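Table S2 (continued). Query chain:
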Amino acid sequence: MTDRRAAIFAVLTLFAAGCGGGSSGGGHFSPPPPPIVSYPALTGDAFTLTGTISSTTQLTAPPTTAPQTDAGTVALTTRFGASTTAGSTVSITSTSNEVDTYPRETITTNTTTVNDYTTAAGKTAISVVSTNATDSNGVQYINTYGTGNGLLDVLPETTGAFGPNNAALTYQENDPGNYSRNRVIQADGSYTETGMDPFGDVQTIITNSDLSASYDASQYSGRIFAFTKPTGAPAMITITYTHAPSAPVQITITSWIPATATQPETETDTNAGNTAFPAGCAVPAKYGTSGNQLVQSITRVDPALGNLETETITSYVVPNYGPICTVMADHVSTFYDFTGQFGYGLFYSITGLPVETTDVAETLTMASITTSAGTLAEKRQTDSVSRTNATPFAFARSRFEEKVREKLKSRNITFSRDFFASGAHAK
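Corresponding output:
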């Protein structure tokens, strides 16, 4: 056995001991009886997934538009590469290729993902450490997860809450046109984002823990927006618009931020136990009809860009295979529009109702698993260690969240030299 395989095997031996496995006479490892749920794979193992993706956008400010839906198919393959070991943690690097096919375009994205498998006290925590993706448009997206974020599952799986994850993350985007942005997100979801265009212009967006915010585009437009936290009864938000040398202008609007929100981002992570696959997963019969349902629910409030977002990632984990299907759904209500599509640099809601809604949904299902011993077609393989993994789903989530950002037109509003040129107007 190579050192790499031995390292992975050692981690899984610790996990197996926590599941009731152990040593038999003669001092050799005796694998636990099925079922087990172990994710790590070995170098060269590959996973193929297929699925669908759709997005629906609707302008809800007058004039209201009909919902606009864009739908496509997804084909995703992942192959395992090198692994390293540090103490009780095995880190595995994998490469993924995703092809999103729409009626009028095809987008290919190649990603490198690092996952950690850390064993302690008879439990193995599976986490995503980083993802580095480049799409066929030449745009690079890098996610680096901070302390307390990135947990995907805990083995052996037990029903109930696990985690929880916080929001700590660093996100970097690099465009081939020499546009870039870097967002550093704190544990509570507050963030600072700095962007730069090819001319060296800089913009800064800041959201604070108390749900106040600022958007500084003064370097290339002379405009600055500041947003107070919701105050009063009923709760109101004051927007201060500054365009030097004119005096600042203040606008007070009904708060769109839920009264229950105490910070910009919260997440809950739950294992709901054995649950039948939803029909939309279309899982091949060889993987059974049900799996442990892992649900990650995230609520985000962006007081600078005016977005109220709910994201749900639901994965179904099958013993001996790992995650077989993942269903991702994201709903965003947008209350500030900076795109200029209404004819104004900032179009905002004074009623507490959104000016636009966006829904993005994606489903990915395991189609086949290929190991160094061949295609895995039965529930039990000859190896004593199941080789399935969480990597395709770790990558899928980060890529899914980027698709949501694209649909929100976040890149379209960055560094437009006509930004705010027409002033602000209320719905």
